[in-house]
């Protein structure tokens, strides 16, 4: 199966639903995403209701809540405003877990140097963004995505818009993933 596609973004302020790749493109490896705390799996979206690998991920990580979300102009009230809200840079106090069942969209995350990385999720991609990572979401030009949302316990969908440097989730993220590569650690 195909690997998750990700790249550093350009800073051209036009339609956020366009790919925004640099010229030439600068791909981002799964290992680099992992260094930022981003986890991902490629699953079979046609068998999500009876997928042993998905069940194992959910059990191992304690994801006991699940719902489905169709995001497109025909099915979401105030669609344009919702997309604007999703595209505002923010963090969450908990992981953000999304499994793309149909369609496609973009998660943008900040790296350790505060550069935007665009992650293109398509059918079969399960992505986990760690609590406290700055991110945003938008659809691509297909204008449709069907997502499974997973959560530990009762879902809390609160977004904390940037800046949030003192938020406990952000501080924890910086401790776990925020060290710049090659930055020496102080001796204790």
Largest sheet: 8 strands, antiparallel
Mean pLDDT equals 93
Shape: globular
Order of helices and strands: EHEHEHEEEEEEEH
Total helical elements: 4
Record field, number of beta strands? 10
Low-confidence stretches: 181-188
Q: Structural class of the secondary structure composition?
A: alpha+beta
What amount of the residues lies in strands? 25-35%
What fraction, in percent, of the residue positions are helical?
Answer: 10-25%
Any idea what the radius of gyration is? 16 Å
Q: Give the CA-CA distance, first to last residue.
A: 45 Å
GO molecular function: acireductone dioxygenase (Ni2+-requiring) activity; acireductone dioxygenase [iron(II)-requiring] activity; iron ion binding; nickel cation binding
Subcellular location: Cell membrane; Cytoplasm; Nucleus
Family: Belongs to the acireductone dioxygenase (ARD) family.
EC number: 1.13.11.54, 1.13.11.53
Please describe what this structure looks like.
Pathway: Amino-acid biosynthesis; L-methionine biosynthesis via salvage pathway; L-methionine from S-methyl-5-thio-alpha-D-ribose 1-phosphate: step 5/6. The chain is α+β, with helices and mostly antiparallel strands and 188 residues long. The chain is built from 4 helices and 10 strands, in the order βαβαβαβββββββα. Strands 1, 2, 3, 5, 6, 7, 8 and 9 form an 8-stranded antiparallel β-sheet that branches. Strand 5 (96-110) and strand 6 form a beta hairpin. It is globular.
Write out key terms for the chains shown.
188 residues; alpha+beta; eight-stranded antiparallel sheet; two-stranded antiparallel ribbon; 4 helices; 10 strands
């Amino acid at each position: 199966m195909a690997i998750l596609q990700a790249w550093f973004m350009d800073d051209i302020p036009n339609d956020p639903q366009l790919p925004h790749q640099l010229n030439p493109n600068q791909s981002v490896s799964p290992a680099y995403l992992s260094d930022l705390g981003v986890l991902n799996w490629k699953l079979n979206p046609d068998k999500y209701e009876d997928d042993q690998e998905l069940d194992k991920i959910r059990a191992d990580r304690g994801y006991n809540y699940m719902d489905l979300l169709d995001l497109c102009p025909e099915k979401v009230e105030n669609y344009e405003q919702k997309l604007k809200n999703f595209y505002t840079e923010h963090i969450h106090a908990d992981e953000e877990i999304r499994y793309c069942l149909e369609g496609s969209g973009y998660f943008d995350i900040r790296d350790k140097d505060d550069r935007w990385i665009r992650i293109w999720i398509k059918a079969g991609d399960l992505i986990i963004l760690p609590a406290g990572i700055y991110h945003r979401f938008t659809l691509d030009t297909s204008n449709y995505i069907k997502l499974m949302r997973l959560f530990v316990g009762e879902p809390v969908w609160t977004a904390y818009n940037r800046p949030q440097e003192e938020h406990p989730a952000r501080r924890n993220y910086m401790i776990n993933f925020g060290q710049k590569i090659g930055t020496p650690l102080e001796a204790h």
